Amino acid sequence: MNRRPGDSVSGRSTARPGETVPFSSVIQLRPPHAHLTVSGELDILSSRSVRREVAGALADGTTDFTVDATDVTFVDAAGLGAFVHLRNAAMARRGQLRFVGASASFVSVCGMAGLHRAFGFEPQTPAHTLS
């Protein structure tokens, strides 16, 4: 796994010590497809916005979702839960969730939570097996 300065195992990254990265999410709807771009810190508070956007997309008949999480700097259990909910809802409608980009810290946290396969990420190679 490649880490950038400021990244940690928990996935939190700051621009400067003590300064957090604000969260943003944008959803582009073209039912039955939606593309969600998220950036910054995805936590218990910001995941509510993701859940609201997803609920609206599902209500509009969206079944297939792509997500770009390239600029996610932190994710907690609530943030992961929002994507688990999205995946389950899409699959219940015979759709899918596919990540088209994800930060190293996001992928790392997904791996620790056992979600790497559910989200389509390859399992991480343990550092001690690297040559």
TrEMBL record:
Extent of the signal sequence: none
Matching Pfam families: STAS_2
Highest taxon listed in the record's lineage: Bacteria
Region (Disordered): 1-21
Gene Ontology molecular function, alphabetical: anti-sigma factor antagonist activity
Domain STAS, first and last residues per copy: 36-131
Identification of the protein by name: STAS domain-containing protein
